[in-house]
Amino acid sequence: MSSKPMLRIEGLAKNYGGLKAVRGVSFEVPEGEIIGLIGPNGAGKTTTFNMIAGAEKPSAGKIFLFDEDITGLQTEKLYYRGLMRTFQLSHEYAKMTSLENLMVAGPSQLGENIFMNWIAPARVAKRESEVLNRAQDTLEFLGLTHVETELAGNLSGGQKKLLELGRTMMGDSKCVLLDEPGAGVNPTLMLKIIEMIRTLNEEHGYTFCIIEHDMDLIAKLCNNVIVLNEGQILMQGAMETVRNDERVIDAYFGGGVV
Ligand SMILES: Nc1ncnc2c1ncn2[C@@H]1O[C@H](COP(=O)(O)OP(=O)(O)OP(=O)(O)O)[C@@H](O)[C@H]1O
Ligand SMILES: [Mg+2]
């Protein structure tokens, strides 16, 4: 790993009452890399993302984005610093179209401000058409142009996952946290999602941290994998090393095969 850390987590912890969901987790996500975050159900993966993405306040620990302390910053502030996340369960607005779902994920909509609409209508219109163009380009990238006007609630599970990924393309993303981008996705679409993540990494400069149970996706995309178990890092290393490690096999299956 030669590049500097984009994201740095130090001693992150989260307690829910007596339950220690995350207990002192530290790791780095180097700029330009795709890091895998794996581990059995309940290991604390989503809770870790929630803290990084400003959805939950840490009980202890610090989070740095490019050496700036972002601990406890809210999601919107993080959006403007280029940090975005997707959700394990897709967060689409069911009663809005695919296109509208992407547009609302775009940079702040000046048109929602009545004063701006009155004082600078041309600027508002320009911004809105930029957001529209970006949303249409994103749908094209995702292969979803044919469902542009479909209500998001009617999309398949896999299409909703694509739309989740698309939301991160509506801002100037630098660091993107993906929570199970492949969950419930059929094998063909899975290969497309893997390709899209790779393209965003190689051609658009995105740095990723990916939670995923599908080891094939992790093996195809991630050189470096972090294994969480019971709120702590069990080990970190290359996928081949990690998947053959007895401790990891034990954590997942109590002796089965990963
Ligand atoms: N809001 C909450 N209140 C109480 N307990 C919670 C809350 N969120 C998560 N937990 C608990 O914290 C632990 C870690 O949960 P988390 O969702 O982070 O696991 P995960 O690694 O993402 O698992 P999965 O692979 O199943 O998604 C679990 O025991 C979970 O029940
Ligand atoms: Mg989870």
Span between termini: 26 Å
Placed side by side, the strands forming the largest sheet appear as: 6-7-8-3-9-10
Classify the oligomer.
Answer: single chain
What small-molecule ligands were found?
adenosine-5'-triphosphate, magnesium ion
Sum up the overall morphology in one term: globular
- The proportion of residues in beta strands is 15-25%
CATH topology of the largest domain: Rossmann fold
Secondary-structure-based class equals: alpha/beta
Estimate the mean pLDDT confidence. Answer: 91
At the fourth level of CATH, the homologous superfamily of the largest domain is P-loop containing nucleotide triphosphate hydrolases
By DSSP (H or I, 4+ residues per run), the number of helices equals: 10
Radius of gyration: 19 Å
Q: How many structural domains in the coordinates?
A: 2
Highest-level CATH class of the largest domain: Alpha Beta
**Largest sheet, if any?**
6 strands, mixed
Got a strand count? 10
Summarize the SSE layout with pairings.
Elements: E1 5-16, E2 19-30, E3 34-38, H1 45-52, E4 60-65, E5 68-69, H2 75-80, E6 83-85, H3 98-103, H4 114-119, H5 121-142, H6 157-167, E7 175-179, H7 187-204, E8 207-211, H8 215-221, E9 224-229, E10 232-238, H9 239-243, H10 246-253
Parallel strand pairs: 3-8, 3-9, 6-7, 7-8
Antiparallel strand pairs: 1-2, 1-4, 4-5, 9-10
This protein binds adenosine-5'-triphosphate (ATP) and magnesium ion.
The site of adenosine-5'-triphosphate has 12 residues, from strand 2 and helix 1.
